[in-house]
Amino acid sequence: MSDLHRETRLARGQVPPIDRATIQPYADATPGPFYYQRVAHPVGHETERLLGELEGGRALLFSSGSGATAALALALLGPGDTVAVANGGYWGTVALLEGELGRWGLQVRGFDQTGEPPDADLVWLEPCANPMMSFPDLEAVIARAHASGARVVVDNTVLSPVLLRPLEHGADFVLHSATKVLSGHHDALIGAVSCARAEDHERLAAFRSASGLGAAPDAAWLMLRGMKTLGLRVERQSASALELARRLAGHPAVQRVRYPGLDPDPVAARYVRAFGPLVSFDVAGEQAAVRVERALEVIENATSLGGVASTLEARARWEPSRVPPGLLRLSVGLEDVEDLWADLAGALEVMQRSNG
Ligand code: PLP
What we know:
356 residues; alpha/beta; Aspartate Aminotransferase, domain 2; Aspartate Aminotransferase, domain 1; 2 domains; 7-stranded mixed β-sheet; 5-stranded mixed β-sheet; binds pyridoxal-5'-phosphate
């Protein structure tokens, strides 16, 4: 059974009931593995088993993607250590590592992940970076980082293990905001880290127990339940995203489309066969972007990504110094692609009319 395909592994097996008990009584005066929920709980354990199996590593759940980021930084690094973080990726990662943990002596250096990483203790990559969509040459960057003694985290939130398994390319850790594609329904806040090595898994598990940064059983259950359809969702979302990226690229009101599946990006195409749900595109400035947001009727004007319902937002709202003012980030869901295109084209037309 060990050679089953990923979709089969995802679909097989029952989702266990949610056991919310914070304690399990000792048997024979001996604490069992689930003796206290902060340390581990049954549905979390099953979710970690499935994710670890998909990624070829040992997975641990956290309270959110950001909780997982905090745990990695605090468990692995200390004052004076440096993290090199890919430019154009999730702004909250930098806000946490630099803005918050900087006060504790962590140094953060931004770098272009399509080039070489700078010297650092930890290198943080993000394929299909949210929202700038750059894609690193994973094996080259990881080899370079390892040669200089750094370890590598790959934030795989956007692609999920259905499309990319960074541990197979040499990464030491994979991080997920499982709030997004893995859970898939915009109803669970949860994060995960998969570790290549048993000793790192042990260290992070100890940190999680000590810090209380673990995931609640309800969120773990929703994630496990969501993962049953992960393969199907990712295929459909990727196909619709590619189609919409192509159509957006041909639209006169769109200045630029950022999607590695367009053309496609030759580096990205070496690592993935499809490019996930996220498409960024630029219109003429922040006001124009907000006009598109307001004119949408099917696509939800909301943050986050990877859910069954498509979402779009103007990113300058949150990260004005990091993105072009007219950048819109679209996360493509499971709606009919023609409805999505009609909504986008209609909103772009409203924007054009009010600009003219
Ligand atoms: N990594 C990426 C790529 C994200 O998009 C996000 C959230 O938007 C995070 C990490 C943080 O995850 P969470 O919101 O679950 O804390």
